Amino acid sequence: MDKMKKFLLYAILLVVFFVFSDFLINVGLNSSYKNMERKNNIEQVQIKQAQATLINGRIKGTIYNSSPEDLNGKYIKIDIYSERDVLLGSKYYNIPNMLDSRIQDFELYFKAQYAKYYSVSIVDEKQEEDLNLEDIEFIPKDLNKPEIWLATIVTMLILW
Questions:
Q1: What is the pTM for the complete model shown?
Q2: Is residue 115 exposed (0-12), middle (13-18) or buried (19+ Cβ within 10 Å)?
Q3: Cα separation of 3 and 150, whole Å?
């Protein structure tokens, strides 16, 4: 019976550790993001969240097709700038299948050191001079909670 109590105690401590570590990870990550400032304002692209840390960032927004011209096949060009207005890089986001008066959400994750400002524009095609710039690395997405839990469990199993 003592072994079962000890096993149950270890199981409870493991669950408490996971909950506590999940809380600390969320608080730590979200507190390190600072809001980025926008340099221009485009009616068709509304940014809900633009934040950056010292080494990476995220931009989330909505595309509104409110103009009479079709946005299909066009690109959203996002330029990332440092605090001293140095262009750190550019990225193009392809606007897929936007019919008249449709709304579409988008999100981008990037790695760029000391990103402070961003500008958004809609262009018809990618410019070659921008392609010669060293593009900042764009990350596919943030990890969600199940992926963080899986990574924690795998790490714990490896260390055990």
A1: 0.64
A2: buried
A3: 28
Residue 39: which of 4, 95, 85 has the closest Cα?
A: 85
Average pLDDT, consecutive stretches of 10 residues, N- to C-terminus, the chain (160 residues): 88 92 82 86 86 88 76 84 88 75 81 88 75 52 73 83
CATH topology of domain 34-145: Immunoglobulin-like (2.60.40)
The β-bridge relationship of strands 115-123 and 75-82 is antiparallel
Query: Alpha-carbon distance 122 to 125, whole Å?
Result: 9
Within 10 angstroms of residue 63's Cβ, the number of other Cβ atoms is: 21
Per-residue pLDDT tens over the stretch 63-76: 887 666 677 778 88
